[in-house]
Structures are given as C-alpha cells and as structure tokens.
Amino acid sequence: MVKKICSFQWIVALGFLLLAATSVSSKNHGNQANDLVDVINKNRTAKKLPQLNNSPGLGCIALQYIKECRANCSENNTVNCKPPENDFTEIFAPNCGVELPTFGTISGLIVGCQQKHLDPPEAFSRVLIHNNRTLSVIHNKTHTEVGVGIVHAKSHKGPYLWCALFGSNKKNSTFVLEDLGKGIEQKEGCYSGNGVSCSSGGRNGHFVFAINCVWTLVFCFLVLIRTGFF
Ligand SMILES: *[C@@H]1O[C@H](CO)[C@@H](O)[C@H](O)[C@H]1NC(C)=O
Ligand SMILES: *[C@@H]1O[C@H](CO)[C@@H](O)[C@H](O)[C@H]1NC(C)=O
Ligand SMILES: *[C@@H]1O[C@H](CO)[C@@H](O)[C@H](O)[C@H]1NC(C)=O
Ligand SMILES: *[C@@H]1O[C@H](CO)[C@@H](O)[C@H](O)[C@H]1NC(C)=O
Ligand SMILES: *[C@@H]1O[C@H](CO)[C@@H](O)[C@H](O)[C@H]1NC(C)=O
Ligand SMILES: *[C@@H]1O[C@H](CO)[C@@H](O)[C@H](O)[C@H]1NC(C)=O
Question: In 3-state terms, what secondary structure has residue 105?
C-alpha cells in the first residue's frame, strides 16, 4: 500500500513537471513580429541610425493591410496588392481601435510573402529585403517608429505574408490604441508592439497547444488509473 501511494505521488509530481515545462516552452515562442522589429533595429543601429519605437497601433494597421492582401501572394513571392488609401482610416484603424485623431504619417511600407514559414532573421533578409530599394526604406532617417504584421494567407494554411509600416511622428503620441492601449483584440495573425504571445499565423502556437493538451490528457488518464477509476 505504501509503495502504491509513493508511485502515485511520483506520477503527480512528474505530471506537474511536464505541464510546467510545456507552458515555459510555449512562452518562449513569444511574438515573432516583435522579434522582426528587433532585427530591423539591430540592422539600423549597426549603421549608426537611431532605433525605431515599436508601435502597437502601427503594427495592428500593418496586420490589417496584409490581411486585405492575403489572396495576392504571387508565385514569385511578391504581393501584388494596392488597398485604397482611404482604407487606412476607414477600415484598418477602426478594426484596431486606433483613435482616429491620433492617426499619424506613414513614411514607409514594405510587404512580402513566402510559401513557407521563416524565422524572423530569415524573414528580414529574404522577405523584407527584396533589393536595395527596400533596404533604403529600412535605413531611412525620417522614420521614428515601426510596426510589423504577419498572417497566413488562409486560416492556418497557405503562404505567409509580412508587412512592415514605418512612421515619422513624435514618439507615443500617434496611432494610439483606445482602451488604455489595448485596442481591439485580433483573432488572427500577429502584430508587434504588444505582449501577446503569438507565432506568424499560429503554427507554433497551435503545435504547443496540441502538445499541452496531449500531456494533460495522459496525466489525467494516469491519475484516474492510479485512483482505481478504471
Ligand atoms: C512576379 O509575378 C508578377 C505576376 O505574377 C509579375 O507581374 C512580376 O513582374 C513578377 N516579378 C518578378 C521579379 O519576377
Ligand atoms: C488582389 O488581386 C486581385 C486579382 O489580381 C485584384 O483584383 C485585387 O484588387 C487585389 N487586391 C488588392 C487589395 O489590391
Ligand atoms: C525617406 O522617406 C521619406 C518619406 O517617405 C521620403 O520622402 C524620402 O525620400 C526618403 N529618403 C530616402 C533617402 O529614401
Ligand atoms: C543589414 O541587412 C542587410 C540585408 O540583409 C545586410 O546585407 C547587412 O549586412 C545588414 N547590416 C548589418 C550591419 O547587419
Ligand atoms: C546595392 O547596394 C550595394 C551596397 O550598397 C551595392 O554594392 C550594389 O551595387 C547595389 N545593387 C544594385 C542593384 O543597385
Ligand atoms: C514611449 O513608450 C515607450 C514604451 O511605452 C517608453 O519606453 C518610451 O520612453 C516612450 N517614449 C516617449 C518619448 O515618451
């Protein structure tokens, strides 16, 4: 009897350990849009250019922009898409909860797509830098802030699309999100400037979530067997 209780406690301890381990690993996935902003800033500071402020309002607008273009990723990984200028203030900003009077100047835009998922440093060199023209957008001295959005072409499948928007406004006074900076929750994709953990389009997030569920089920199953439920 004593032996049985010991091994039961051992299983409970192991179960908690596994759950703790998987929740830590899911945290480490972080937010790839934020990681891409870090790569952009590293590339700028190496050129002695000032860092750009990571603006959640601008990031969410970048996500809206690329969502409108999600069907337009071509075979050669270029995005052939030109949303009307008015959509920025009439659709994108309201969808994010950006306070309209704080809508500022957008001084640069880069979009790109790839058939497969890329980690942030690869996305930087292969998607954001197509040629010298986009590199000069990243190195432009006028910018003060940046926002990045990433989304899947279809929900959970198809090519990945990236969008980086640059602004040239006084820090923190433009693209302000309502509700004390929370804005409107986005159900899909990923954008920079917030603490929300996400992966581009959700692949890694869903994988970790599935692994978590499997471990929880196995753990519950073992507990039920040990307590003589079956
Ligand atoms: C990519 O494809 C589009 C149409 O699918 C074409 O207009 C464009 O010229 C192509 N770009 C390059 C660099 O091949
Ligand atoms: C996406 O591509 C389609 C077909 O080429 C075109 O009709 C549409 O206007 C494009 N979307 C945008 C937002 O430019
Ligand atoms: C930097 O961006 C501003 C605003 O878009 C533009 O007017 C200017 O020509 C750009 N400068 C360079 C060197 O590309
Ligand atoms: C910045 O990025 C460009 C394009 O990927 C690369 O060629 C260059 O070496 C990078 N600069 C630094 C200092 O990392
Ligand atoms: C791109 O820029 C690099 C360095 O700034 C230069 O050596 C190269 O010739 C440029 N390429 C084109 C196609 O302009
Ligand atoms: C802007 O906001 C960031 C983060 O909230 C903060 O670290 C920074 O000091 C602010 N900058 C200014 C100029 O207020």
Answer: coil
Closest C-alpha residue for ligand 4 atom 2 = 43
Q: What is the pTM of this model?
A: 0.78
Q: 73: burial class by Cβ within 10 Å (0-12, 13-18, 19+)? A: buried
Domains and their CATH numbers in the chain: 32-177 (3.40.33.10)
Q: Which amino acid appears at position 154 of this protein? A: K
* Residue nearest to ligand 1 atom 4, measured at CA: 74
Ligand 1 contacts CB of residue 78 (under 6 A): yes
The token pair at 115 is 């058939």
Number of Cβ within 10 Å of residue 83's Cβ equals 15
Question: How buried is 23 (Cβ within 10 angstroms: 0-12 exposed, 13-18 middle, 19+ buried)?
Answer: exposed
Interval 49-62: pLDDT, tens? 999 999 999 999 99
Ligand nearest to the CA of 78: 1
Q: Which ligand places an atom closest to the C-alpha of 56?
A: 6
**Rounded distance between C-alpha atoms, residue 44 and residue 28, angstroms:** 25
Q: Indicate whether residue 28 lines ligand 1 (CB < 6 A).
A: no
Residue 41 Cα, ligand 5 centroid: separation in angstroms?
Answer: 21
Q: Give me the amino acid identity at 17.
A: L
